Amino acid sequence: MDYINEYGDLMTTPLIGQKIPDFELEAYVNEKISKIRLRENKSKWMILLFYPADFTFICPTELQAAAELYPQFKKEGAEILSVSTDTVFVHKAWHDNSPAISKIKFPMIADPTGKLCRSLGTYIEEEGLSLRATFIIDPEGVIKAMEIHDNSIGRNIDETLRKLQAAKFVR
Q: pLDDT per residue over 18-71, tens digit each?
């Protein structure tokens, strides 16, 4: 929730501790197009990996790392959901044509209208893209950790796994 502070600056309330909004979006997963709902992942930890666009340079390295660690995330009781503003058809084309992306077994969510990106503050209006962001969400749908940074900076998926394990440990 945004508010104006005593100096007249627009401030944003941190999302940590807030429930993630429910959503239903199309995703490319297991070589088919499906609908994904947040409620389907209740009782699981969720890792939302927002990235700017398919067919770029940093994104495949991160998503390949996530694909390689996916069994460990599953062992921790977590589901990975990657999200970009591309369509499911672009996700499919990328999955079909990239050796790195073809390893992905988790849902690749399409958010072409930016609805989910806007709701979590990752949408870049002027570009129609998402900032690179990671959200760790507990089984009740509460945001426990988040990281948002410039699209030129990649993220470390091993660190995301460590943060998940830490969040589970203190729960």
A: 888 888 999 999 999 999 987 776 789 999 999 998 888 777 788 999 999 999
The residue assigned the tokens 């660690």 is: 69
Classify the C-alpha dihedral 67-84-137-107 as positive or negative.
Answer: negative
Residue 13 pLDDT greater than 70, yes or no: no
The DSSP secondary structure of 98-122, one letter per residue, reads -TTGGG--S-EEE-TT-HHHHHTT-
Catalytic residues: 59
10-24, 52-66, 81-95: which has the highest mean pLDDT?
A: 81-95
| Rounded distance between C-alpha atoms, residue 146 and residue 125, angstroms | 20
Q: What is the pTM of this model?
A: 0.89
b/e map 30-59, b = 16+ CB within 10 Å: eeeeeebebeebeeebbbbbbbbbbeeeeb
CA distance 23 to 158: 27
CATH architecture of 16-169: 3-Layer(aba) Sandwich (3.40)
- Measured CA to CA, the distance from residue 171 to residue 138 in angstroms comes to 9
Instruction: Give the whole-angstrom CA distance, residue 166 versus residue 164.
Output: 5
